[in-house]
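Q: For a teaching session next week I want to show students how multiple molecules come together into a single three-dimensional assembly. I've collected the sequence lines for a complex. Could you give me the predicted structure tokens for the whole thing so I can convert them for display?
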Amino acid sequence: MSSGETSYRERKVISIGTVSELTGLSVRQIRYYEERKLVLPHRTNKGTRKYSFTDVERLMEIANHREDGVQTAEILKEMRKKEQRELNKAGLKKQMLRGQINAQFQRGRP
Amino acid sequence: MSSGETSYRERKVISIGTVSELTGLSVRQIRYYEERKLVLPHRTNKGTRKYSFTDVERLMEIANHREDGVQTAEILKEMRKKEQRELNKAGLKKQMLRGQINAQFQRGRP
DNA sequence: CGTGTAAGGAATTCTGACACG
DNA sequence: CGTGTAAGGAATTCTGACACG
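A: Of course. Below is the structure for the complete assembly, covering every listed component.
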């Protein structure tokens, strides 16, 4: 709604080999987590996967959960819940901001 | 001095093909600018180049200068001057901060 | 000086599959 | 279920060199 330019954190520019080094996961594991919908890399014209730093962080979280023996289906559910909580939080902030702006108008001080 | 973790902006994780797409420069051009010391990518064990977003921005600046017919040697000088100015600025900030902290101590309110 | 291109080789990535468990 | 691996092919990257200007 404001910038237009995606931030560095979310730009999908990292290839799978680099992601493997960054996360310590094998290329096979990274592809498998995509199959299970845990990460959604961008695909270039020629079909190669590109990841963002956000994806890398997400993969590290997944790695931690897997180490604890959590199955991919569970991890997926957890992450979806978490995202929902974050959306709510963002929505709440927006509401409060709107409230403040309205209050300003009421007092006749735009 | 504080974090230890490099920020996303400076992490060298982007390969040359992607940089080419991001900047609109040819791979040949990007390699040539390295030869002329205008950009300094990281080299992996196997010798492939990895760039940061900062490098990408720098390359776009280079592209602009080249469009204006500026030679690489000139661009290099300009960029070095600019960096020097930025280091000075950072140094000045640090000095001022130190001054403020000292002032607090003088008043006996640490 | 700055950039394109063909050359030959090494390393990457992709998919679908079999293996183990 | 989650991961390794060999298979075959396509695309990437690297270097040194010749070309043009």
